[in-house]
Design brief:
This protein is mainly beta and 508 residues long. It has a domain at 3-78. Strand 8 and strand 9 form a beta hairpin.
């Protein structure tokens, strides 16, 4: 016959009440109650009653109980081991569960284990927890408010705490072994702050997207290498200091967030800033590490508060891609010598941009289409190696008055509409220019003088190149072959044709 014992806990201590018949030997099957939790004892081990575990609001599990001075390990509930109890979808949609304590022996919390447990507000782990992994969506849509992650936990899976609308705090124990934060792990949570453990190498895509996250710090000795796609998108994060080992900032990682300040640890190894990384954010100033080689398209687009971009000396930057600073609040920028290409619309609609300075020895070769169109640029000195101005690159630059070319400029082509409707008043075309495109200086009302050298290599001027401009005449080399100025009220003259030298003149 089963025997029944009652074990009463008072202020954390266990007091035993002997069962009927004076139980001296608990080898037989019996039932005991500890802290109002019924346990079935058999073969020297204990299990929580199956019916109790299935129906209670507060499932506070433990690894052992004491009865009559004897210790019994607790191995599970009913016919389930703890491993099975915390397996995939075990507590799925269990709306009545309000709190749970997870025993030491549990190493894995399975996929969707507590998903949609809307009223589960408290999750604790027994001291000495051996938890290694929390699998995907384990607490998604749960009511958990705060959680302390055991030190041995290595992986927080994809969507693990996604849509936890009450989660404000997550604490990692000292010496945390965490290596990976999965995709969307805390997306749409109310998390307010977090300190990323030193062992984390990758913060995966969407991890903190749409969070109330105001503070992110990194443990000393951080080994972080990559911040993934959309990690902090639309969060309220105000500032962040990026660890030295980070090599990649992913696509849209800080886009449309309240980020006002971002700094990089001295000697940061950042190599790539992916497209739209800071698009539409509130960032005001940024210092780009020297190691950075690529800034992808739309990276700082629509950053209205961005006033200052400093690129460290010795920069490895080679290309500023399409729309990188488009519609930003940038006021001035110094371009590293190694930059070879400005992509299309790279500074378009930067209304506050007044000055662009190139480092000595600039290798710039191409200025892409609409690169500075509709900007506030006032003057610019074009590096000697620049070969092409693509279409509309300075169009609608109303404040642009002065364009200076370095000596021995290698400019060859000025494409259509390059300076259309700009404020330029005078320009000296470099001698190597062979082509001036359609409408190149059209609607330049202030343009009064265009100087083309007599020994210029100019071969073609396309239609309406100077239409509606202030220039009334232009003198081109005798060798210029095609002049399509139909419709232009412009007088085109040629330099006198130079006669070949006589033998006597050549001898002299």
């Amino acid at each position: 016959m089963n025997k029944i014992l009652t074990v009463v806990a008072v202020f954390g201590s266990i007091f035993t009440v002997d069962a009927m018949d004076g139980v001296a030997d608990i080898e037989e099957t019996c039932v005991v109650t500890v802290n109002n939790v019924p346990y079935e004892i058999a073969d020297g081990t204990a299990r929580v009653s199956k019916s109790f575990a299935a129906g209670t609001e507060n499932l506070l599990l433990r690894s052992f109980i004491e009865v009559n001075g004897r210790t019994f390990p607790v191995t599970g509930t009913g016919d389930q081991s703890f491993e099975e109890l915390f397996g995939a979808a075990s507590f799925l949609n269990r709306f009545g569960l309000r709190s749970i304590r997870i025993p030491v022996a549990v190493e894995v919390i399975g996929e969707k284990c507590f998903k949609d447990c809307n009223n589960l507000y408290e999750v604790t782990f027994e001291e000495g927890s051996r938890l290694r992994k929390i699998e995907a969506f384990a607490f998604e849509w749960s009511g958990v408010k705060s959680i302390r992650i055991p030190s041995g936990t290595e992986i927080i899976g994809d969507g693990c705490f996604r849509d936890c609308r009450y989660l404000k705090e997550i604490i990692f124990e000292n010496d945390s072994c965490l290596l990976e934060i999965g995709k969307g792990a805390f997306e749409h949570s109310k998390l307010e702050s977090i300190c990323i453990p030193a062992g984390v190498v990758v913060i995966n895509d969407d991890s903190f997207k749409y969070c109330d996250l105001g503070e992110v710090t990194f443990a000393a000795g951080s080994g972080l290498k990559k911040i993934g796609k959309c990690v902090f998108e639309r969060s309220v994060l105000g500032s962040i200091c990026v660890p030295a080992g980070v090599e990649v900032i992913g696509e849209e990682s800080f886009s449309c967030c309240d980020l006002a300040r971002i700094t990089f640890v001295m000697g940061c190894n950042l190599q790539t800033i992916k497209r739209c990384a800071f698009k539409g954010s509130s960032v005001k100033s940024i210092r780009i590490p020297a190691a950075t080689e690529i800034i992808e398209k739309n990276c700082f687009r629509d950053c209205k508060n961005l006033r200052e971009v400093i690129i460290e000396s010795g920069s490895q930057l080679k290309k500023i891609r399409k729309r990188v600073f488009m519609s930003s609040g940038l006021e001035s920028i110094r371009i590293p010598a190694g930059v070879e290409i400005f992509g299309e619309c790279s500074f378009k609609e930067c209304c506050s941009l007044r000055e662009v300075i190139f480092e000595a020895g600039s290798k710039l070769r191409k200025i892409g289409g609409e690169a500075f169109s509709d900007s506030g640029l006032e003057s610019i000195c074009i590096p000697v190696g620049t070969e092409v101005f693509y279409r509309y690159c300075f169009r609608n630059c109303a404040n642009l008055r002065e364009l200076i070319f370095e000596d021995d400029s290698r400019l060859v082509r000025i494409r259509e509409g390059a300076f259309a409707n700009s404020g330029i008043n005078k320009i000296r075309i470099p001698g190597g220019v062979q082509f001036i495109g359609y409408g190149c200086f059209s609607d330049c009302r202030n343009l009064s003088e265009v100087i083309i050298a007599e020994n210029s290599r100019l071969r073609e001027i396309e239609g309406d190149a100077f239409s509606n401009s202030g220039v009334t005449s232009v003198c081109v080399p005798w060798a210029t072959e095609i002049i399509k100025c139909s419709g232009d009220k412009l007088k085109v003259e040629r330099f006198p044709r130079r006669q070949p030298l006589t033998e006597d003149e050549a001898g002299e």
